Amino acid sequence: MRSYGQYCSIARALDVVGDRWTLLIVRELLLKGSCRFTDLKNGLPGVAANLLSSRLKDLEAAGLITREDAPPPVATVLYTLSEAGLELEPVLKALGLWGLRFMAVERPDDAFQAQWLAYGPAWFTTDADPDGPPAVIQLVASDELAVIELRGGRIHTRLGRATDPDLVLDGPPRAVLGLLSGMMDVERAGRLGLSVRGRRDLLTRLRPVAPGRATQGEVRP
After folding, report:
1. Cβ–Cβ < 8 Å for 26, 119
2. For residue range 129-187, what is the model confidence (pLDDT) as tens digits?
């Protein structure tokens, strides 16, 4: 692990998490919980196995992750964020919210996975009608499925398919996430291929978070 060699807390933090792929490994462990090596590699398209192994060793040495041998039938090593690693969640939320401004362009070779579809609404939107009745929204983007559940004034998300959703948003990732994040309205998202079926009024309950603020949403693996 290379060091900036500066007596500065920002530099010291970047000594630990500033390498390529490191914060994305933390992202995957935040979203999925304990993971096998293969789970992490599958969740990080483009990472080389030897580089991932090196980054995991660095994170373990820095005290950000722990590893343990899972008993049968799993019988493999599981990687888990330590308390210090979990403390990076607000950092990633702030970084993700700041990074929304760069999401206007969806590049043809960009990978996209369901867990990334799920965390956006939980982290970057709030329920504008916290006293409203429970509601379920199905998200479909590039054949990836996630569910938004509005209840108790909070936004909960999970991967998978809802049994009987009140609203379905189906389209390219840029259109689905663009609408949820407030980067575009329904009309513009529709021009990009978004299909909206069901209770459109629920869209008014999903209020994008202002830059600089993080939500208290919950992502469930």
Report:
1. no
2. 999 999 999 999 988 999 999 999 999 999 999 999 999 999 999 999 999 988 899 99
- Contact status, residue 167 vs residue 198, Cβ threshold 8 Å: yes
C-beta separation of 207 from 128 below 8 A: yes
The Cα–Cα gap between 108 and 118 comes to 21
Closest Cα partner for 184 from 144, 205, 138, 173? 173
pTM: 0.87
- CB burial class (10 A; 0-12, 13-18, 19+) of residue 175? buried
Whether a cis peptide bond, with omega within 30° of 0, leads into 73 is yes
State how far the Cα of 32 lies from the Cα of 155, in Å rounded to an integer: 18
Contact in structure between 141 and 112 (CB atoms under 8 Å):
yes
Tokens of 127: 């329920």
Q: Is the dihedral of CA 210, 92, 173, 116 positive or negative?
A: negative
Domains and CATH numbers, the chain: 9-87 (1.10.10.10), 110-220 (3.30.1050.10)
Phi first, then psi: give them for residue 6, nearest 5 degrees.
Answer: -120, 140
Q: Which of 123, 118, 109, 113 is nearest to 139 (CA)?
A: 118
Nearest CA to 81 out of 31, 41, 30, 43 is that of: 30
Contact between 100 and 124 under an 8 Å Cβ cutoff? The reply is: yes
